[in-house]
Structure to design on (639 residues):
């Protein structure tokens, strides 16, 4: 059986979602290919249609675009940006980002739920970026989210899984794919997230700030695949062998 | 007979007063800031921290930090890349008028100066805007001198409306307005507002702003706050380094931005770092002189104190300086600059405010950014 990531009815073999906003456009293709990514996010505000350095011209054609609504401060702005993305043929996927904090770039969960509801009704495959909160995640699913994207740490911080326990709760309780987004700083952290059972990992800064960007993309791709395999292999069973011994430990009891 | 000058702390008629304590907070901190009190160990401690306190920021601006410029630069590169990747935003200014009603002793637009004054008509603006848009730029900064009479809010609004036809981002660098006027210009399509306090030393401020509305220190100080109340998306701060004690002015500028960000966490914060150049033959004689070394120290301190803030590098600086600070500390650079009134397509209608040191065109700056392994960004904002 093929292990595939399914979002909005679309199937993907790779669980590495690549952010594209922090490195040179001329290496986008090499980074995508090295990492094996099939989904690439792009900030619509950077799409300079018909103009200089238009990111859309650098993303390979077989890639699923995941336009984000960065720059939006309200649900209303996010909805408008998403609709603009669709108008310029960026497809139906949208990563909702509503941010009212210029320092830490934390998402506004409340506005994010509102935008998700409107966009899902409008036929978008909505993937909201959120602060990991179980109640909000449930609301997002009720609002029609196709996946939920909790942050691991503040954007760009490369700090790894600071919110690990809360992400685990989402993995355990939420039916749609949980995709870790923001804060992953090294491949081992991406691997750890995948071992926890998250469906995919999104990375941007960690790749973009590496000395050799395409090679780091490759390392992330491998780590994510490795973490997924570990999850499928049943990591918990390996570590808890004593608790699952083949012969009962209390089998000697007679009466 | 000596003219009686007005009290610079008293608002003039029609100037809006808002409820805010940021001015008091900034001035109190600056009064207590003695940069000679910092030692190299304070600087080292600041450099070892992830988030800088106000004290750490003070240390990085102090003379004790001078031997640590290289370390500051290395840390700044990391912070800049973390927050902005390798993106460098491009823009150009368009002066639409240079009439001015202020008598500021250091400024080329000073109302007492006998320079050629002018303003662009709406048609002339459009010709200029079209010519700039042809270079591929998507961000423009519209500037005027400070004259409500010659370049009124409605006139500026018309310019902004026109600019939105060709540009995705419109900034303004004009005289301070009331919040309802900022709201009007926001509605016209302006996104960002730059206002420079010049100096935060109110005594010096009074000495160099002899007359005109600019003389009112608190009204200018609260411009950014009124702009945000009016709905602007972001605001920029700056002192004219070298006008007074540049270390204190830089400290005040950072604090001004810091307290504003705390009060308005959604606001995008920017810095500019204009300086008065020291006289060449006077090098190193005056501790207030801002040579490139001091200018870079200020820029690095801004970056390390507020790593998420945009920093613009002025065309007043030479190409070699600008090329090296982008990516390390600066995130935005102007290109194809004309600082006369108009001058992008038609003959200038008015004289320049200052001389530029980097006359390179947009394609030249674009290529330089690529050559430095960075990514030129034309569009970084979507107006919805």
């Amino acid at each position: 059986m093929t292990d595939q990531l399914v979002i909005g009815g679309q199937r993907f073999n790779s669980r590495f979602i690549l952010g594209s906003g922090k490195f040179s456009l001329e290496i986008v293709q090499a980074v995508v290919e090295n990492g094996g990514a099939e989904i690439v996010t792009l900030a619509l505000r950077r799409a300079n249609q018909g103009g200089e350095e238009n990111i859309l011209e650098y993303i390979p054609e077989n890639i699923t675009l995941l336009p984000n609504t960065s720059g939006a401060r309200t649900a209303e702005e996010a909805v408008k940006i998403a609709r603009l993305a669709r108008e310029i043929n960026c497809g139906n996927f949208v990563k909702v980002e509503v941010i009212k904090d210029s320092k830490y770039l934390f998402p506004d969960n409340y506005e994010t739920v509102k935008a998700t509801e409107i966009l899902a009704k409008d036929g978008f495959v909505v993937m909201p970026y959120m602060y990991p909160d179980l109640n909000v995640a449930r609301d997002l699913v009720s609002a029609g989210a196709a996946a939920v994207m909790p942050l691991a740490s503040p954007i760009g911080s490369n700090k790894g899984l600071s919110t690990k326990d809360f992400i685990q709760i989402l993995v355990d309780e939420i039916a749609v794919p949980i995709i870790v987004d923001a804060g992953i700083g090294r491949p081992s952290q991406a691997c750890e997230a995948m071992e926890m059972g998250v469906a995919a990992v999104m990375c941007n800064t960690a790749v973009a700030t590496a000395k050799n960007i395409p090679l780091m993309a490759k390392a992330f791709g491998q780590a994510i695949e490795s973490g997924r395999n570990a999850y499928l292999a049943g990591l918990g069973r390996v570590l808890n062998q004593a608790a699952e011994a083949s012969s009962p430990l209390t089998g000697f009891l007679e009466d | 007979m000596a003219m009686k000058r007005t009290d610079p702390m008293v608002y003039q008629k029609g100037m809006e007063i808002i409820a805010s304590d940021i001015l008091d907070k900034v001035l109190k901190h600056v009064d207590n800031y003695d940069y000679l009190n910092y030692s190299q160990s304070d600087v080292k401690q600041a450099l070892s921290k992830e988030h800088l306190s106000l004290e750490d920021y003070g240390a990085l601006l102090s003379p004790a930090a001078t031997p640590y410029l290289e370390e500051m630069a290395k840390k700044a590169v990391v912070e800049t890349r973390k927050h902005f990747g390798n993106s460098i935003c491009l823009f150009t200014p368009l002066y639409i008028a240079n009439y001015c009603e202020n008598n500021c002793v250091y400024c080329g637009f000073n109302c007492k100066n006998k320079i050629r004054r002018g303003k662009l008509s709406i048609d002339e603006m459009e010709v200029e805007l079209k010519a700039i848009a042809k270079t591929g730029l998507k961000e423009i900064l519209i500037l005027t001198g400070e004259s409500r009479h010659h370049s009124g809010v409605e006139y500026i609004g018309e310019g902004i409306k026109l600019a939105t036809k060709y540009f995705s981002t419109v900034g303004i660098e004009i005289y301070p307005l009331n919040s309802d006027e900022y709201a009007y210009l926001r509605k016209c399509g302006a996104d960002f507002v730059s206002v420079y306090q010049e100096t935060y030393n109110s005594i010096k401020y009074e000495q160099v702003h002899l007359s005109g509305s600019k003389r009112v220190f608190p009204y200018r100080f609260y411009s950014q706050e009124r702009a945000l109340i009016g709905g602007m998306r972001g605001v920029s701060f700056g002192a004219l380094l070298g006008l007074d004690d540049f270390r204190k002015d830089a400290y005040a500028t950072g604090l001004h931005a810091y307290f504003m960000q705390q009060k308005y966490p959604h606001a995008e914060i920017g810095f500019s770092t204009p300086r008065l150049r020291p006289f060449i033959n006077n090098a190193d004689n005056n501790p207030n002189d801002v040579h490139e070394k001091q200018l870079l120290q200020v820029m690095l301190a801004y970056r390390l104190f507020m790593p998420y803030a945009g920093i613009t590098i002025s065309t007043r600086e030479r190409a070699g300086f600008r090329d090296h600070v982008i990516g390390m500390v600066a995130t935005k650079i102007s290109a194809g600059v004309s600082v006369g009134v108009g001058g992008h397509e038609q003959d200038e209608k008015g004289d320049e405010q200052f001389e530029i040191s980097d006359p390179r065109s947009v394609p030249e700056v674009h290529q330089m950014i690529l050559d430095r392994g960075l990514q030129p960004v034309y569009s970084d904002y979507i107006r919805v």
